[in-house]
Design goal:
alpha+beta, globular
Length: about 625
């Protein structure tokens, strides 16, 4: 069924605007002067722009202007990589304060927006599917008056537009432009609309499957942010690895600073770009990696491949391939320059870093960081570009790195961060991690939720806590990690004692025996529009996790169900279409069994589960 929207499409080419008004959701062909728009309606509405005479056009951009009757929305999900969308969820923020949202190099997210009704369903979702390129969403109405700072909301119309490309990038000379538009109405929630958008996008762009490496399912310990990079050395890492193995953590990640000064220190000079071990910290990195691997763990190295410090030894060698904006060397706020991913010479240098590290130190994989240090504007340096800066170049760089390291070690793992781990680029790594969120588990959860709708495997950002955490709170932190993906940690594991150690060890035991089996084989799904009850279900086993103010969960007869109470309440109401008999074991946050009974699960049943605790329910 055609969506209830009005659609105008504008081609900006050859120095003019060519408008195609009232484009319907169906197959069609429309002419305006020398230009033709052809549409095909499938899951997406496909667009092809050409000239009638078949000649090339100098194309600047396409504008998709969408309008619909305005409603009182409860939330807006703006175009984003998943790292900041939750900070812009109130519609008035968009109507009045921020009308522009960009998909750029540092925020290489989804050109997707969703409008959530008061009942929580997704009233309207829209997104563009096409080549990776800078894109801008403009909220035209409601919005600011054109002449003064006054909110304009009259007329009861909502009008917004996607511009592709945006931010100074242009299509350039071309004989044909192909784009596609996603529209959905009435999805149960924005999460499912985003998942469908990503599914249609993968189908259109030919992504059949993401890399599926079981090694990527291993929980990770990372040296950031537990320690300042100045203090990380071989003795510390080895002592941490011994405790990590005992707890059930399978990967040790050497974060920023293993090669010298990390950007988390107060030291003035950095050597970012010189990727050789700091001899004071790691006199025998290859030997240390081998010791970690002999313990049955994996060793992962941090690399910020495009970032180059002006104080590094490599700076003079690569200076000609650094990004310039307005003909000046671009310097990010952390005082690092950036190699241009649209430069073939820069990409060659970067790929050689990865292949050398893999061969010299035999690590199991990499954490790739700092692509979000790119400028939003395109590089205009005089060096050669064989891709459009910056997003297209970034995607080509990621592909070339991935192909090169897989050729050396086919089972290599690579962690991407959500700033550049969207549904298209997630094929160039084994997992996508939520953006940095130390001591803010709820921000981490929101970021993981968004990312889990789009990609194959999600890693949480590294969990940190202190001795001040209550038992129920620490257990709830772990429940929130387990809901979305692979648990990760950045805490001094040597200091965990007593009940905290028991809590972590117990949850990681459940992760290995229960959760890992579901991560590659099921989709995370919300049970309600509030997105505070989540499940994974393969028809035999499932987990259901409640968080925040959730009070009820739906259960179906399964061989084994893990029902996790991540709320502050000590009971949960049950919904089920038909009663079934079970054996139920209930555990405290510290994994002590508090009850064991046979129970008939029926609609409206109230189950007692301690806050931060869980029940294991087996159908009988």
């Amino acid at each position: 069924m055609a969506p209830k929207i009005e659609l105008e499409v504008v081609l900006v080419a050859d120095g003019q605007e060519i408008k195609f008004p009232e484009v319907p959701w169906r197959d069609g062909s429309y002419s305006q002067g020398h230009y033709v728009l052809e549409t095909r309606a499938k899951d997406l509405l496909l667009f092809k722009f050409t000239r009638k005479d078949g000649k090339a056009m100098t194309a600047e951009k396409i504008i998709f202007r969408i309008s619909q009757e305005l409603k009182n929305f409860s939330q807006l999900i703006v175009p984003d990589c998943g790292r900041s969308y939750m900070l812009h969820r109130y519609p008035l923020n968009t109507w009045f304060h921020q009308r522009q949202y960009d998909v750029t190099g540092p925020n290489d997210g989804n050109p997707f927006a969703a409008f959530v009704s008061q009942s929580g369903d997704c009233s309207l979702a829209a997104g563009i599917v096409g080549e990776p390129i800078e894109t801008t969403l403009w909220m035209e109405r409601p919005g600011m008056a054109s002449q003064r700072a006054s909110l304009v909301a009259y007329g009861g119309k909502m009008i917004f537009s996607f511009e592709r490309p945006g931010l100074g990038v242009k299509y350039g000379p071309t004989s044909e432009i192909n784009e596609a538009l996603y529209i959905s109405e009435g999805k149960p929630n924005w999460y499912e609309a985003l998942r469908e958008y990503a599914q249609f996008g993968r189908a259109r762009l030919g992504i059949t499957e993401y890399p599926r490496n079981p090694k990527a399912l291993e929980p990770v310990w990372c040296s950031w942010s537990a320690f300042c990079s100045d203090d990380v050395n071989d003795e510390l890492v080895l002592s941490i690895a011994e405790v990590a193995k005992e707890l059930g953590i399978g990967s040790i990640l050497f974060d920023d600073g293993w090669f010298g000064t990390g950007i988390d220190t107060s030291k003035e000079k950095l050597n970012t770009g010189d990727y050789f071990p700091d001899k004071d910290k790691f006199p025998d990195l290859r030997g240390l990696v081998k010791k970690i691997q002999e313990m049955g763990l994996m060793a992962i190295l941090w690399v910020g491949p495009i970032s180059v410090s002006p104080d590094s030894e490599v700076f003079k060698e690569v200076k000609d391939y650094l990004i310039q904006v307005n003909k000046e060397l671009f310097l990010y706020i952390n005082n690092l320059h950036q190699l241009c991913p649209a430069s073939p010479e820069a990409r060659k240098h970067i790929v050689e870093i990865f292949t050398r590290l893999l061969k010299d130190y035999d690590v199991d994989g990499f954490k790739v960081d700092l692509y979000n240090n790119l400028p939003p504007e395109p590089c205009d340096a005089p060096h050669r570009h064989d891709e459009k800066p910056n997003i297209q170049g970034l995607h080509r760089l990621m592909r070339e790195i991935w192909q090169a390291i897989c050729a050396i070690k086919p089972d290599v793992i690579m962690e991407l961060k959500q700033n550049y781990g969207n549904f298209l680029s997630a094929q160039y790594g084994t997992m996508v991690r939520a953006g940095d969120s130390p001591y803010d588990t709820d921000i981490n959860l929101a970021r993981c939720i968004y990312t889990s709708a789009c990609v194959g495997l999600v890693h949480n950002d590294y969990l940190v806590w202190t001795s001040l955490e209550k038992e129920s709170d620490l257990s709830t932190l772990l429940i929130k990690q387990l809901i979305c993906g692979v648990p990760t940690f950045s805490v001094d594991l040597r200091e965990i004692t007593g009940v905290q150690k028991k809590i972590v060890q117990g949850w990681l035991g459940l992760y290995h025996s229960f959760f890992k089996e579901l991560l590659f084989n099921t989709n995370l799904k919300p049970q309600c529009p509030e997105l505070n009850v989540w499940q994974r279900d393969d028809g035999r086993r499932n987990f259901v996790g409640l968080i925040y103010g959730a009070r009820e969960a739906e259960l179906l007869p399964r061989e084994k169900t893990l029902l996790m109470n991540g709320t502050a309440s000590d009971y949960i109401y049950i919904k089920t279409p038909a009663a079934f008999k079970t054996a139920v074991e209930t555990f405290s946050p510290s994994h002590n069994k508090v009850s064991e009974e046979n129970m008939s699960i029926k609609d409206g049943l109230k189950i007692s589960i301690p806050a931060g605790g869980y029940s294991i329910i087996r159908s009988t």
